[in-house]
Amino acid sequence: MKRLTASLLTLCLLGFGITSAQADDPSAGSSGMGDPYFPSDGNGGYDVQHYDVAHRVGVGGGSLTGRTTFQAHSLQALNRFNVDLMLKVSSVKVNGVPAVFTKDSAHELVITPATPIPDDTDFTVEVRYSGKPSTLSWKGERPFLRTKGEMMAMNEPQIAPWWFAANDHPRDKATIDVRITVGNGYEGISNGRLTQVVKGKKWTAWQWRSAEPMAPYLAFFAAGDFAFERGTHNKIPTFNAVSKKLSKTQQMRSLALLRRTPRVISWLETWLGPYPFTAIGGVTTAIRTGFALENQTRPTYPYAGGAEGDWLVAHEIAHQWFGDKVSVNNWRDVWLNEGLATYFETLWSDNYGFTSPQQWLRFSWESYDSDDSFWRVRLADPGPRNMFHEAVYERGAMTIQALRHRIGTTDFKKLLRAWVKGRDHGSTEDFIALAEEISGEDLTSFFDAWVRSTTRPARTAANGLN
Ligand SMILES: [Zn+2]
């Protein structure tokens, strides 16, 4: 639709000699970022640089009242644009001036600024809202988590619109400040560094700062009664928290697990180069999520039984490089996140009992028969329903080991370091191109077999399976 408008304009310009200024006539930003799996995620026409989020949450009742102010840069002249937000909106300002707004679906807030925003310009948006995020569902998903005395925003691929006004796609990363105000006796925890705690008579405000740009789904907060400990690792502040709703023994075991984080980071740095962020930590809540998530600088873990579950820490910390530092271009690229995180989880776990990662690969390849449905998931494009299929993790990690065997450990290490150092986003095609550039090999048939086919790769040296 946008393209059609542009070509019509060109025709008009040719036919009627309209001045070029009118080619920049403001128009509406698109309601999505063009991700084939989630067309309404993110929005067109602007790029967010920074979010400032301030909330008051009622931990007991699950309510949230707040505002998001974000600084953005226009990518076209805009007379209207969308923001992703599930909560009920009470006011919107653009550059400090009240703006007209409507909801054209539960997910899309449509904003019409009083004055159009010129192309290539910085502007500020302030949105005020309130609601009970755990009651809100979109396309069958109700991702905001809550239990008695605890609430938490953590999910993938969507969670941001349940608690702040966002351009919710990994392609638009921004820094974020989060202030969570909770009743005294509760803590509000988010990503990054804790910069301030302001205690009032009834309420306490917890102020967090994430200095490095982040994909919106990786921003999180938890509010409840937590025991926490602070420290430093290589001069980077660490912050770990565990829910006081867990038993004393569970709290101790959870803390022991979180304390593994610096050791995992040091080990990963030997593979990947410096840890990419300026804060470290983790949170274990009492909410039974059944999964852990790699929130940037502060993954969340369900209670996993203690330090023996540290493969989970290896997985989530590996994601700080793969998924957080280098994010997917589109959600179909998710195997790059999960395959690499599962690969390093496997290495950290001493190849799950095998003498080498190559032995682990051979065993894994054999353990799924060629007619197993496991091989039918197309890794490079699994479809939105299969984004978190076991194959995305396992076949993903197998692909990575097969690649290491095929190009050799020296080039493999070079590849991973170049991948995480040089970029904030990447696609499967980008990864393949870099692997070919560094190894000097044509890897077309290798990647066809491993990430594009829906059959078991043949057991050949070319497929890294000898
Ligand atoms: Zn993962």
From TrEMBL:
Q: Which cofactor does it need?
A: Zn(2+)
Q: Does the keyword Zinc apply?
A: yes
Q: Which GO terms describe its biological process?
A: proteolysis
Q: Which Pfam families match?
A: Peptidase_M1, Peptidase_M1_N
Enzyme Commission number: 3.4.11.2
Q: What residues does the Peptidase M1 membrane alanine aminopeptidase domain cover?
A: 312-450
KW Transit peptide (keyword) present: no
Reactions performed catalytically: Release of an N-terminal amino acid, Xaa-|-Yaa- from a peptide, amide or arylamide. Xaa is preferably Ala, but may be most amino acids including Pro (slow action). When a terminal hydrophobic residue is followed by a prolyl residue, the two may be released as an intact Xaa-Pro dipeptide
What SUPFAM superfamilies does this protein's entry cite?
Leukotriene A4 hydrolase N-terminal domain, Metalloproteases ('zincins'), catalytic domain
Q: Kindly indicate where the leader peptide sits in this chain.
A: 1-23
| Entry-linked InterPro entries | Aminopeptidase_N-like_N, Aminopeptidase_N-like_N_sf, Peptidase_M1, Peptidase_M1_aminopeptidases, Peptidase_M1_dom, Peptidase_M4/M1_CTD_sf
Q: What keyword terms does UniProt attach to this protein?
A: Aminopeptidase, Hydrolase, Metal-binding, Metalloprotease, Protease, Signal, Zinc
MF GO annotations: alanyl aminopeptidase activity; metallopeptidase activity; zinc ion binding
Source superkingdom: Bacteria
Report the enzyme's class at the first EC level. Answer: hydrolase
Which CDD domains would you find in this protein's record? M1_APN_like (cd09603)
Residue ranges of every copy of the Aminopeptidase N-like N-terminal domain listed in the record: 83-218
Family stated for the protein in its record = Belongs to the peptidase M1 family.
> How is this protein named in the record?
Aminopeptidase N
Which organism's genome codes for this protein? Nocardioides daedukensis
Q: Show the taxonomic lineage.
A: Bacteria, Bacillati, Actinomycetota, Actinomycetes, Propionibacteriales
